[in-house]
Amino acid sequence: MSDRARERTGGRTPAGEPARTADAREPGALTQFAAALRTPAAAAQPLFAQAPKAWQRALPYVVVGIFVVSLLPTTIVVLTNDYGLDGGWSGALGVAQTVPLLLAVTRPLPAWLLVLVADTVGAVLLAQADKVAGHPWPWTPMAVVGYLVLMACLGLRESIRNLVGVWLATGALGAVLRFLQPGATANTAALLFVLSGMVLALTGALRGLGDARQRIAEQESISEAERSRRTLLEERARIARELHDVVAHHMSVITVQADSAPYRLPGMPEPVQQEFAAIAASARESLGEMRRLLTVLRAPDGAGGAGGPGGADGARAPQPGIGRLQQLVETTVRAGQPVELSLAAGAAQAAPPAVDLSAYRIVQEALANVVRHAPGAPTRVSVTVDDDEVLVLVVNGPAARDAVVEPEGPGTGHGLVGMRERVRLTGGTLDTGPLPDGGFRVAARLPLHAGDGTAVGTNAAHEANATNDTNDLNDSNGERS
Predict the structure, then answer these.
(1) pLDDT tens-digit profile of 398-416?
(2) Is residue 171 within 8 Å of 187, Cβ to Cβ?
(3) Domains of the chain by range and CATH?
(4) CA distance linking residue 72 with residue 95, whole number of Å
């Protein structure tokens, strides 16, 4: 599993996956070569510039160099002996027709222009040669081979429009040269036209495949970023819904206390009674605003079915806390996951509501990740409390050998997002990571006090503001991990 995939799944290794070395995970040389062949090079890059190995990046130069070294002397000898061309002209044409192939690795279009001019000049000169009769013309066999090599470089680099233009120019030039054709010669214009078209079509298709794969990879990257962002916003909306239940309880208590104060404290002066009445009115108004916000966050198109976390039954159900961890662990054990719970006495009573709810949700998400990514792994859950903070620790070992791991897919790997958001809500810290034995560790520190009295409130306000842009998002209970 790659580092990126390991991060998406919370750093876990799927059960039953044997330990693999880096060499075992690398694709074979043939696969790498095929990938490099399909990868289009930028305008300023040589062919195979993005290949992973040095020998693969040097391969185009080696191949073209072999053709140049082979074709250069062959061209000079054939033009001199078979066609009867002057030795000086033979040498000049041999250099002009073969050496520009080296430029085709980085600049195939200029190389094609140079070779086309050299081949045309050679065809004109050969039309007047003494021994041209009975030999291929206007393109010699060496010129045909070099031209096809050039077409391969063009097809892997240039656009379809340029390739079509090159192909048509090749055919048009061959048709024009037919007017100079000497007698009793084998015309190769049609042959080169057909062969160059085939090479251009093949290499152009490879380039098109590479372009398509590149666009798909870019689109997948964008989709993954959008999916992560949407999951984050959904988790914030879900936290805001749960936070409403906590805050609404306290606001209801304030309203009741302010309304009942004149009856519980007889003889209260009139100004004090009016002040309590104003407090109760403000509290009721705040409750009304929160209910309107909750109506948007729990809209039918953004909630699950009735009975789900976002449904009507879930809205009326009390929010869980540390006191219900024992029930959560027992449910997990009945599902076949060995879990041990160590719960400090008085932890549920010591934690404020936001911390109490966050601690439960963190343990719930951590156990869900264990079930998905390390089924059968022995797991320890520990919740301790001191004067300043609640420490939530979930540690699991490696998965059982015969366990079946849930495959990765879209919407998975986001469990840590919800944990981080909940910890940030309370002003705490989260530490997660894989263990040397193949297990995983989740440690959350949730402060019992807000320091200067504003930290938790500031985070809560931030969460409520974040939900203003996510009114139409679905509940993320099924996508958090």
Answers:
(1) 888 776 665 554 444 456 7
(2) no
(3) 1-13+320-449 (3.30.565.10), 42-187 (no CATH)
(4) 6
Of the two residues 465 and 375, the one the predictor is more confident about is 375
How far apart CA 393 and CA 431 sit, in angstroms, is: 10
Q: Are 148 and 196 contacting, i.e. CB atoms less than 8 angstroms apart?
A: yes
Q: How far apart are CA 72 and CA 145, in angstroms?
A: 12
Q: Which residue has the tokens 């190995």?
A: 53
Q: Tens of pLDDT along 227-285?
A: 777 877 777 777 776 776 677 767 777 888 888 888 888 888 888 888 888 888 888 87
Contact 51, 77 (CB under 8 A): no
pLDDT tens-digit profile of 302-322? 444 333 444 444 445 567 889
Indicate the burial class of 295 (C-beta count within 10 angstroms; 0-12, 13-18, 19 or more): exposed
pLDDT at 192 over 70: yes
What's the distance, CA 31 to chain centroid? 22
With residue 442 as reference, give the H or E element that holds it: strand 440-447
